[in-house]
């Protein structure tokens, strides 16, 4: 998410930057405070950003680092007519108030000339201490210490204010608010973009994009979901109400003006005119667990009738293999995304068989990121972000079929069986343990 947002703000994420996987603190090199604030206006992963004045592995190293920090960069925030406060935050450890005051008092060598104001200071300084990630083995002294000037907080409050629990219209697979915003950030959604979701469901992914000022639309094969009809997914509610629909969800958050429309359509069949229509495609395809994987097909096709008559055509849904879903999605993105536009989607995986090779590819799309979210001990799903880097030509339409690696992708089709095999084994084990 941070990488995508930096590129959206005009910055660049360097591979040389210090990223410790086992630490909640990152040191980033950002060209300007303005860019840092732009980053924090979007992120739901990062909590706060600071201008780093000093850091070290011990108190002595931290103080030495602070003494080496250029005085001309410090002084604007330490003037006699200013107010300030120092806040201390420890990760994985709780300090007493007396311990905190002792650590703050130890900073008296810094040339603070302003007045302390705990309620409404002009400048806030933070001491950050990292005691590792293991709550069962907390060290006496921190692994890393940081001191810096607070610049801005992230948007983590969006997770609560857009919570699915408070949403007007939900379904069985409505996307968690935090993940929806992360996906929009991976897609680098910005004001006046057009964002499309081919498996729109109850429109959870449209809401986060609309929040960032994009115009949103989607399609879904399920007529009842698009029109807000049928049985409700909410507990203690039998049927959906007359005003439960995607538009009502966007209206709930004051985002209705960004809603283009949602259509009943089959994502496996072309409905759009040719051309680059969308700035981002952000979606969560069905995996066949809570929602079926379906596409349309007529009864005539099913029985392979030789009659060509169009009379009494009754469309029914037929099975839509996961591998076909992903290839249709990539082909659609390659054709309909603008150059530099992004496709962001979830790919379910069976962990014992997972390799990088099973991620579907397309010659027009470049893989940007691949992030794992654990679902169970043996299954997970990966947030795949791809960017359009090459114009779509007719010869690219079925290019993946020429790829010798096409067969491994077929493994996605058995994800449902593998998912439930783990559940079945766990139930059997629990029953066996209970009998002992």
Secondary structure: elements and pairs:
Layout: H1 2-8, E1 18-19, E2 26-27, H2 33-40, E3 48-56, H3 59-68, H4 71-74, E4 83-91, H5 97-105, E5 115-116, E6 123-130, E7 144-153, H6 157-161, H7 177-186, E8 194-197, H8 204-211, E9 215-220, H9 223-227, H10 246-252, E10 259-264, E11 278-283, E12 294-298, H11 299-303, E13 315-319, H12 322-336, E14 337-350, E15 365-374, E16 379-388, H13 406-409, H14 415-435
Parallel strand pairs: 4-5, 4-6, 8-9, 8-11, 9-10, 11-14
Antiparallel strand pairs: 1-2, 3-7, 6-7, 12-13, 14-16, 15-16
Helix pairs in contact: 7-8
Written overview of the protein:
It is a single chain. Helix 7 (177-186) packs across helix 8 (204-211). Strand 4, helix 5 (97-105) and strand 5 form a beta-alpha-beta unit. The strands form four sheets. Strands 10-9-8-11-14-16-15 form a seven-stranded mixed sheet. It has helices at 2-8, 33-40, 59-68, 71-74, 97-105, 157-161, 177-186, 204-211, 223-227, 246-252, 299-303, 322-336, 406-409, 415-435; strands spanning 18-19, 26-27, 48-56, 83-91, 115-116, 123-130, 144-153, 194-197, 215-220, 259-264, 278-283, 294-298, 315-319, 337-350, 365-374, 379-388. The protein starts with a helix and ends with a helix. With 436 residues, the chain is an alpha/beta fold. One of its GO terms (cellular component) is tRNA methyltransferase complex. It catalyses: guanosine(10) in tRNA + S-adenosyl-L-methionine = N(2)-methylguanosine(10) in tRNA + S-adenosyl-L-homocysteine + H(+). Keywords: Cytoplasm, Methyltransferase, RNA-binding, S-adenosyl-L-methionine, Transferase, tRNA processing, tRNA-binding.
């Amino acid at each position: 998410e941070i990488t995508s947002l930096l590129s959206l703000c005009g910055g660049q994420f360097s591979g040389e930057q210090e990223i410790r996987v086992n630490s909640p603190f990152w040191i980033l090199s950002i060209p300007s405070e303005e860019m840092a604030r732009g980053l924090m206006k979007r992120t739901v992963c990062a909590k706060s950003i600071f201008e780093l004045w000093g850091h070290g592995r011990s108190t002595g190293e931290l103080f030495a680092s602070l003494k080496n920090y250029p005085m001309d960069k410090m002084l604007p925030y330490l003037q006699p007519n200013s107010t300030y406060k120092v806040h201390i935050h420890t990760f994985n450890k709780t300090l007493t108030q007396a311990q905190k005051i002792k650590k703050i008092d130890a900073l008296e060598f810094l040339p603070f000339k302003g007045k302390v104001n705990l309620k409404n200071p002009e400048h806030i300084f933070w001491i950050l201490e990292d005691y590792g990630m293991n709550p069962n083995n907390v060290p006496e002294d921190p692994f890393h210490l940081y001191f810096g000037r607070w610049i801005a907080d992230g948007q983590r409050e969006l997770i609560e204010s857009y919570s699915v629990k408070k949403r007007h219209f939900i379904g069985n697979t409505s996307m968690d608010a935090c993940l929806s915003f992360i996906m929009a950030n991976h897609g680098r959604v910005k004001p006046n973009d057009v964002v499309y979701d081919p498996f729109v469901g109850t429109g959870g992914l449209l809401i986060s994009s609309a929040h960032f000022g994009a115009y949103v639309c989607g399609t879904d094969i399920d007529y009842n979901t698009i029109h807000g009809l049928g049985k409700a997914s909410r507990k203690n509610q039998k049927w959906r109400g007359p005003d439960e629909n995607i538009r009502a969800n966007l209206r709930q958050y004051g985002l209705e003006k960004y809603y283009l429309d949602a259509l009943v359509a089959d994502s496996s069949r072309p409905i759009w005119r040719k051309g680059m229509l969308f700035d981002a495609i952000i979606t969560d395809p069905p995996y066949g667990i809570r929602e079926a994987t379906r596409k349309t097909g007529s009864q005539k096709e099913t029985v392979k009738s030789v009659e060509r008559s169009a009379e009494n055509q009754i469309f029914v849904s037929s099975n839509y293999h996961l591998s076909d879903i992903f290839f249709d999605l990539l082909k659609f993105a390659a054709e309909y995304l603008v150059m530099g536009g992004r496709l962001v989607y979830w790919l379910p995986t069976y962990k014992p068989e997972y390799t990088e090779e099973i991620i579907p590819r397309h010659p027009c799309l470049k893989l940007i990121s691949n992030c794992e979210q654990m679902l169970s001990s043996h299954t997970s799903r990966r947030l795949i972000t791809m960017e359009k880097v090459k114009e779509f030509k007719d010869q690219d339409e079925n290019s993946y079929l020429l790829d010798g690696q096409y067969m491994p992708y077929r493994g996605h089709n058995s994800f449902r069986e593998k998912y439930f095999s783990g559940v079945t084994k766990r139930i059997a084990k629990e029953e066996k343990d209970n009998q002992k």
